[in-house]
Amino acid sequence: ETLVVFGDSLSAAYGIAERRGWVALLGERLRQERLDYSVVNASISGEITSGGRSRLSKLLAQHKPAVLILELGANDGLRGLPVGEMKKNLAAMIALAQDSGARVLLVGVHMPPNYGEDYTRAFADAFAELAKRQRVALAPDLTAGIGERLDLFQPDRIHPNEAAQPALLENVWKALRPLLTR
Length: 182
Hints:
With 182 residues, this protein is an alpha/beta fold. 42% of the residues lie in helices and 13% in strands. It has one domain: 3-Layer(aba) Sandwich (Rossmann fold). The chain has helices spanning 22-32, 49-63, 74-78, 83-99, 117-133, 165-176; strands at 2-7, 38-41, 67-71, 103-107, 137-139.
């Protein structure tokens, strides 16, 4: 079976060796647990949800994933795009994936506090609301537990560094494991 990770730079191992990114570590974990999935990392640095929405159909047809990990939205947030638009795009992608027969894990991300309290709250809430409404699994925050630790980020303070990748995997794994069949 195929598992597709559909994300942005947070999943594309931006600024670090690809084999050290959390998606590569996920492949190793699946092998260790004797779970027979091949992992396709279809993440693109800089991707926003509208871009993801436009390329997902082709990807689903090409790979026919049993599981889709959807990790998009961070760049919408960094650009200050409306949360409603992001939700609409994510909802459409979830529906496309579900219609193709994939089990979906939505991965939430959080905005830095300098984007204002209202925006950051609406942004964080969007993922939980979508997961509930569309009945998909949720990893509430990809960077949970590392957000305050500057030693776990690259100098840009946006992208987690190599040392942070195992923590990112754990944040995803907790929600992903129940979706996986032996």
